[in-house]
Amino acid sequence: MVVVGAALSGGAAAELLARKGARVVLSERRDDIEQASRLREAGIELELGGHLQRTFVTADLIVTSPGVPREEPAVAEAKRCGVEVIGELELASRWLRGPLVAITGTKGKSTTTTLVGRMLAAQGRTVLVGGNIGTPLSSQVEASTPDTIHVVEASSFQLETTTTFRPWIALWLNFSEDHLDRHPTMDAYAAAKARIFAHQRAGDWAVVNVDDPVVMARSEGIAATRVGFSPSGSVADGFAIEGDWIARRTGTAIDRLIPVSAVELTGRHMLGNVVAATAVATLAGASTRALVEALRGFHGLEHVMEPVGRIGDVTFVNDSKATNVEAARRSIESFTGGVVALVGGRFKGGDLRGLRDALRSRGRAVVAIGEAAPLVREALADLLPVIDAGSMQEAVKRGYEAARPEGVVLLAPACASFDWFSNYADRGRAFKDEVAALMSRVEG
Question: CATH for 96-295, among 2.60.120.260, 3.40.190.10, 3.40.1190.10, 3.10.450.50?
Answer without folding.
Answer: 3.40.1190.10
